[in-house]
């Protein structure tokens, strides 16, 4: 039987609650699909940090490298461990270390979910550059602590970095409704964003069948609220994609429904799948976290592994559950109730 | 009679249409209020650029300096003049040249206007840093045109720059519902945004009566869509404020209702008032631009000049007009119809 080796990192807070739920559903889908998922759990988290002084062991990245995929719940427990440690010690090193340069996030309303907008007919795929740009980490300070203090943060965009995310975006658009929106702020950021626009125009030549439009980030943020149905594939930088995918999560009803995949398209290293939400310390371990985003992220993992049919089955199961009004109102249904309903719909 | 000298820059496209409308309303309010507005028109625009090679004369800034305020319609005509010329040759030099460091944008629904959200009870004041940060313009490229090309864009934050906008924000919050939300992305931008957070915490000590919260830009973008009623004053950097105010414009029904003021709080130079919308070449000079954002920006100018009563009268006139369903549906009412209705409501 075909077997996939999956590294499971439940992480902190509700990350643990939802990883368990998603894993049960993925296992059930594997059983039906005639393949096996062999999961190995890693306790890397803020609790692990408080014990060992690091979010993961020094050879963490090398350990993960041999897996077919990584599934992550959520990390962070800001009351005890600063975000700078939890994110920069685990999540971001995995994204960058495995060149997971495409962060993909689908935004559409599941049946039965009422979003905040009056409009509900949208189906957007946001593709966020995940390794460079505004989150490069370059910068520093001078005259610290004086009236004259200056802090700088430098966004770094490489031709290879922009080309590959754009090409990935065009491939996705070609397989969908053939519309790609590139998002910049080239009227105010004349170096990085004008460069992004130039590269986009070059890559676009290879995809004449895809209709390309160019938006400024401010206009795109407004468009996602005012006319989301006009959008198909959006490609944006690390920061702009980060912001737009939270707006996407908002219009699809909230973070309980926002799934994501951190993809290494060359498959030279494993990809990572995670719900967009954080560890939500305030509701951790109460059994009330909505596992739908986590299960959806699991479906994205199955799809990436090549198990399209199983992925589609999980997505239909989710949809049939929300269509019944289960998991559609924040806090109403328990994690377990929703998970059981999805498992029932699968079988 | 008290007389204010106003520099009028109608600019391009619908900038011209709405400036005329707003100016009529301001004049009527002045008449009722017993003061005078002496307007001097400057034709600085893309048309002016095509004739003269510059968006404004070399002594443009010096010419404007002696006015009590500047009123601008909109600039830009991208088909003929790139944004890099129109914005960097007029709008941005005025903002920076006159240290208009606080860009203020109110977001609330006017009566009768249906926004895109199901929720309608919000009243937000966004305060955007307007002179530095991510729009500093610093950066460049190496290895141009080669596979190895790199573009960088450096955000620059100064202590004086962050302190003054924060202090301004706290003053505004103190005069409103005493809640201030500071927006950063300090979990991913460790230099500039951690600095911003530090300065915010210091300034906050001087305003113990104001409740401060800290959001990441992605979470705040989502919050403006999911729970706008929970927000009062938002203070954000140049880029983050730019994005959030477009979301604010979207939730208040669109750019037809989004007013703004570029304030020099020390009054060492004139402030500038402008609707947030652009020049909208597609509908220019058809007489269909909604002048409400422009009129509202005019009311902000009257308020800044110290004519509070006149400003309040203009705001009530706008509200009574939209409450009647005039100017509330995009493209339904002509610029002139809406303007006349506001003038009638004023008298
Ligand atoms: C936690 C944070 C560093 C992360 C990011 O900005 O990438 C998160 O916001 C996300 O969108 O995955
Ligand atoms: C036109 C552009 C430079 C401007 C900005 O980004 O400041 C606009 O988007 C705004 O919000 O006033």
TrEMBL record, chains A, B:
Its cofactor is Mg(2+); Mn(2+). Belongs to the isocitrate and isopropylmalate dehydrogenases family. GO terms for molecular function: metal ion binding; NAD binding; oxidoreductase activity, acting on the CH-OH group of donors, NAD or NADP as acceptor. SMART domains: Iso_dh. This is Tartrate dehydrogenase. Pfam families: Iso_dh (PF00180). Residues 5-342 form the Isopropylmalate dehydrogenase-like domain. Gene3D superfamilies: Isopropylmalate Dehydrogenase (3.40.718.10). It comes from Mesorhizobium temperatum. Keywords: Manganese, Metal-binding, NAD, Oxidoreductase. InterPro entries: ICDH/IPMDH, IsoPropMal-DH-like_dom, TTC_DH. Signal peptide: none annotated. The keyword Disulfide bond does not apply.
């Amino acid at each position: 039987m075909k077997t996939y080796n999956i590294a499971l990192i439940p992480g902190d807070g509700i990350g643990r609650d939802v990883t368990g739920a998603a894993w049960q559903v993925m296992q059930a889908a594997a059983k039906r699909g005639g393949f096996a998922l062999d999961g190995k759990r890693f306790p890397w988290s803020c609790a692990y940090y408080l014990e060992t002084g690091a979010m993961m062991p020094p050879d963490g990245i090398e350990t993960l490298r041999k897996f077919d995929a990584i599934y992550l719940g959520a990390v962070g427990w800001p009351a005890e461990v600063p975000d700078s440690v939890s994110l920069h010690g685990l999540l971001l090193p995995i994204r960058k270390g495995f060149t997971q340069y495409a962060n993909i996030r689908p935004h559409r309303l599941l049946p039965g979910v009422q979003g905040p907008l009056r409009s509900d007919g949208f189906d957007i795929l946001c593709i966020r550059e995940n390794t460079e740009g505004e989150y490069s980490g370059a910068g520093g300070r001078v005259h610290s602590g004086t009236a004259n203090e200056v802090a700088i943060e430098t966004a770094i965009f490489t031709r290879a970095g922009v080309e590959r995310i754009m090409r990935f975006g065009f491939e996705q658009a070609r397989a969908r409704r053939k519309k790609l929106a590139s998002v910049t702020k080239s009227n105010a950021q004349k170096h990085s964003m004008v460069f992004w626009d130039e590269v986009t125009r070059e890559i676009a030549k290879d995809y004449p069948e895809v209709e390309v439009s160019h938006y400024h980030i401010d206009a795109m943020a407004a468009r996602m609220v005012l006319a989301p149905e006009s959008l198909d594939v959006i490609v944006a930088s690390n920061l702009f994609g980060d912001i737009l995918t939270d707006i996407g999560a908002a219009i699809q009803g909230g973070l309980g429904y926002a799934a994501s995949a951190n993809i290494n398209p060359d498959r030279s290293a494993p990809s990572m799948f995670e719900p967009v939400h954080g560890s939500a310390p305030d509701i951790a371990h109460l059994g009330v976290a909505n596992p739908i985003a986590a299960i959806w992220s699991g479906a994205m993992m199955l799809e990436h592994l090549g198990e399209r049919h199983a992925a589609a089955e999980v997505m239909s199961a989710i949809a049939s559950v929300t269509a019944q009004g289960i998991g559609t109102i924040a806090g109403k249904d328990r994690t377990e109730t929703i998970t059981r309903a999805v498992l029932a719909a699968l079988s």
